[in-house]
UniProtKB/TrEMBL annotation:
Gene of this entry: tmk
EC top class named in words: transferase
GO biological process, one term: dTTP biosynthetic process
Reactions that this protein is recorded to catalyse: dTMP + ATP = dTDP + ADP
Organism ancestry: Bacteria, Bacillati, Actinomycetota, Actinomycetes, Pseudonocardiales
This protein's UniProt keywords: ATP-binding, Kinase, Nucleotide biosynthesis, Nucleotide-binding, Transferase
Name the UniProt record assigns to this protein: Thymidylate kinase
Gene3D superfamilies on file: P-loop containing nucleotide triphosphate hydrolases
Length: 213
């Protein structure tokens, strides 16, 4: 079985770019790599419901922290077999967002920290009840909130299908979410974490070496 590695961070942190660059570095190191990004928009009905709710569809659905958290979890539950197939066929599987994303955003929305009830609920739901594979390592791509916001705004201008949603536009939420991410990483929640400075260039060759040890 391959190693399951998750890349986490705020909207606009650069997770997609890191996934691409780290994939190249792992290939250069001789490893086979599978990738998957969450939410799986256009693939999963649960992910599509999330996107519609974040753009104010489905009434007040987006206002329900547990309702949205359940949709995110169901999207990943629907991909569990795919993740296992990728792990069986590759040395490393990189996921852009995973369970910790649900925990961080839910806690931030409820003004809780990493020790709050909603983080426990996410773990019990996704790992316990749904049986999702536990990560071998998680990477927090840490950037100042202002940098992440500027990147998200630029992405929304340049990519027609990437308009900012209700969560991305809430800077208070983003700040609180960053704090919860820091706490989860400090606690090595679910797995060991690597914390990277996303405001500067990441040495992906060195990171690939660390992940393959």
């Amino acid at each position: 079985m391959g190693r399951l590695v998750v890349i986490e961070g705020l909207d606009g942190a650069g997770k997609r770019t890191l996934t691409e660059n780290l994939t190249k570095a792992l290939h250069n190191a001789g490893a086979t790599v599978g990738t998957l990004a969450f939410p799986r928009y256009g693939v999963s009905v649960h992910a599509d419901l999330v996107r519609e709710a974040l753009h104010r569809g489905h009434g007040d659905l987006a206002d329900s922290v547990y309702g949205m958290g359940l949709l995110y979890a169901l999207d990943r539950a629907g991909a569990a077999d795919e993740i296992r197939r990728l792990l069986a066929g590759h040395d490393v599987v990189l996921l852009d967002r995973y369970v910790s994303s649900n925990a961080a955003y839910a806690a931030a929305r409820l003004h809780q920290d990493s020790g709050g009830e909603v983080v426990k609920w996410v773990r019990e739901l996704e790992i316990g009840r749904f049986g999702l594979p536990v990560p071998d390592a998680q990477i927090l791509l840490r950037v100042p909130r202002e940098v992440a916001a500027e990147r998200a705004e630029r992405r929304a201008r340049e990519e027609a299908d990437r308009a900012r949603d209700a969560f991305e536009s809430d800077q208070g939420l983003q700040a609180r979410c960053g704090e919860v991410y820091d706490q989860l990483a400090a606690e090595n929640w679910l797995s060991p974490w690597f914390v990277l400075d996303g405001a500067n260039a990441v040495d992906t060759a060195a990171l690939a070496g660390d992940l393959l040890k």
